[in-house]
Amino acid sequence: MCGAGTLPLEACAIALRPRPRPRRSFAFERWPSFDFRYLAAERAAATARIRAAPVAPIHASDRSAAALGVVSRNAARAIC
Fold it and tell me: What pTM did the predictor assign?
């Protein structure tokens, strides 16, 4: 029941702790009280938490060879 690999790929993404896209903007950045220094510090902290690899292996299986092919292609396009 691996399907498209959503669960193992999500597990990998969570394990790597990726930060949001670096150039993503948020509506609160236009608020008068917004302090860019705080956001910069949060982005730096998120970057420091990123892992190069999961700390434990993540396995997925399916009895369908076709499903495993889909998972392999999806994994190749994913961050994991």
Answer: 0.64
In a domain, 20, yes or no: yes
1 found inside a domain? no
Q: Which of 57, 66, 58 lies closest to 4 in space, CA to CA? A: 66
- A 10 A CB-CB count for 60 gives 18
Query: Considering its fold, how many domains does the chain have in total?
Result: 1
Q: How far is CA 49 from CA 17, 21, 25, in A?
A: 7, 14, 20
Each residue's pLDDT tens digit, 2-27: 788 889 988 988 898 887 776 788 89
Domain that holds residue 23: 6-77
Tens digit of each residue's pLDDT (9 = 90 or more) over 37-60? 998 998 899 889 889 888 899 888
